[in-house]
Design a protein that fits this description.
single chain, 239 residues, mainly beta, UDP N-Acetylglucosamine Acyltransferase, domain 1, 8-stranded mixed β-sheet, 30 strands
Length: 239
């Protein structure tokens, strides 16, 4: 056991060269943290699953164990974030504050997970994803590479709450989803598509289109969207 500034680092944990661990942080189980990663204050890495805690409460186990998490190189995990055991985070991943990432989640290299986001376990996120503040991602969701999720996007995984069958949404590469959009369980969003802010996506979205509304419907092709974006970006608002 290694104690540091009121925190705790398991004697099973492996911290590579240049890792910085802030005050009050807990590194549990067999967690591995890559070179030059920064773990801010009051972070938990390798938090035990609900099953393990229940076993301890019931007396089925006399010790609270953790398999630990894997954090890649040059990551930045900001304060009050909690990362459960069996999470695999790639290189150069960055979180905001108070991020929750539950067990069996994978996050690819160079991704960003914004403040107050909840990734509720058994989620796969690709490389260079950008997840803004307050996003909710439930179990079985799959998100591709270079996906943008605006603030407070919500995914669901239960078509008939509360049912015994969960089905995750699938978001392919290069998709952009605007703020406050809701993605219904089982929806498949095709590569390169755009979901407008506030949309409620109840059906599959083809590749390369823009959808908007409640329920969401196709309003244009992605080419038209890109043309309008370029025009907007070229218009200066500076006086």
């Amino acid at each position: 056991m290694i104690e540091r500034k009121g925190g705790y680092i398991s004697d099973k944990a492996q911290l590579s060269e240049g890792v910085i661990v802030g005050e009050g942080s807990l590194i549990l189980g067999s967690s591995k943290i890559g070179t030059k990663s920064f773990i801010d204050s009051n972070v938990v890495i390798g938090y035990p699953t609900r099953k393990r805690i229940k076993e301890l409460q019931s007396g089925a186990s006399d010790k609270l164990e953790s398999e630990g998490s894997l954090i890649g190189e040059s990551c930045l995990i900001r304060s009050f974030s909690v990362i459960y055991e069996r999470v695999m985070i790639g290189n150069r991943v960055e979180t905001g504050h108070r991020v929750l990432i539950r067990e069996d989640t994978e996050i690819g290299d160079d991704s960003i997970v914004g403040t107050d986001t909840v990734i509720d376990g058994r989620v796969k996120i690709g490389e260079k994803a950008r997840i803004e503040t307050g996003v909710y991602i439930p179990p079985l969701t799959s998100i591709g590479n270079r996906v943008f999720l605006g603030p407070k996007v919500v995914f669901t995984n239960d078509k008939y709450p509360v049912s015994s069958r969960w089905v995750g949404a699938i978001v392919e590469d290069d998709v952009a989803i605007g703020a406050n959009a809701t993605i219904i369980a089982g929806v498949h969003i095709g590569r390169g598509s755009v979901v407008a802010s506030g949309a409620v996506v109840t059906k599959d979205v083809p590749p390369g289109v823009v959808v908007a509304g409640v329920p969401a419907r196709v309003i244009s092709k992605k080419d038209e969207y890109e043309r309008k974006k370029k025009e907007y970006e070229s218009t200066s608002t500076t006086k």
